[in-house]
Known about the structure:
globular; 15 strands; alpha/beta; disordered C terminus; 7-stranded antiparallel β-sheet; binds FE2/S2 (inorganic) cluster; Elongation Factor Tu (Ef-tu), domain 3; binds flavin-adenine dinucleotide; Rossmann fold
Amino acid sequence: xxxxxxxxxxxxxxxxxxxxxxxxxxxxxxxxxxxxxxxxxxxxxxxxxxxxxxxxxxxxxxxxxxxxxxxxxxxxxxxxxxxxxxxxxxxxxxxxxxxxxxxxxxxxxxxxxxxxxxxxxxxxxxxxxxxxxxxxxxxxxxxxxxxxxxxxxxxxxxxxxxxxxxxxxxxxxxxxxxxxxxxxxxxxxxxxxxxxxxxxxxxxxxxxxxxxxxxxxxxxxxxxxxxxxxxxxxxxxxxxxxxxxxxx
Length: 248
Ligand SMILES: Cc1cc2nc3c(=O)[nH]c(=O)nc-3n(C[C@H](O)[C@H](O)[C@H](O)COP(=O)(O)OP(=O)(O)OC[C@H]3O[C@@H](n4cnc5c(N)ncnc54)[C@H](O)[C@@H]3O)c2cc1C
Ligand code: FES
């Protein structure tokens, strides 16, 4: 799988289905042209009816003619998206960001998703399995009642964890793919001894590289999650002072 981006491509999508995964999370299935989506971990930018700024969401899974988005209700924009009726048309920019680079040489990967950060791991897991690799899945939630998502990884070894670092230490693996908040992803990259990649779910501004509102600190200076990421290699997050592992 080649990690390239073809976007942004502006497209009209139709909401085919919206289903609840928990009290605050819904899975939206959209139909439309998905030709610009190349690898798991890329994101789309959705124009929310009635809102000026677009909202970014990871592609949860996709194939020709459809994609799914996992949307946690945290504010006015996501509340509007939760309320949409099937049949509604949406303006969606696809093909955004650099996603995960699959490593077929690593046969025992663990996928680590924190909260709604589990979203891009769904399409990733499906593609790893298609390549003959069985991933393990760790889903991190601060509290038991917030848990959701195991059903999106059918037939896989899925575990919920309150402490993903501890759960990761207890899980045999030879590489990792992770997605979540900046704080947890940075810590994870610094603690982990195996090779891996982290996807950052940060607060964005412009979404196209102009404002530096999404910048994170990397070994090579500040980088923009929207145009340089959202996926980064573990080694990009490690500096000399905090390096704990060098398995790249
Ligand atoms: C690359 C990328 C991928 C993302 N993928 C997903 C996804 O798959 N599913 C999903 O549910 N969300 C995802 N997000 C976060 C999502 O974009 C925001 O939750 C959404 O834009 C909030 O819109 P709103 O209008 O509902 O909230 P706002 O009214 O804009 O904000 C409401 C509250 O949420 C907080 N907030 C807003 N954005 C974020 C954020 N990124 N992280 C933490 N807190 C935030 C604000 O500080 C505020 O407190 C992603 C973000 C990025 C950058
Ligand atoms: S959101 Fe403006 S540079 Fe990334």
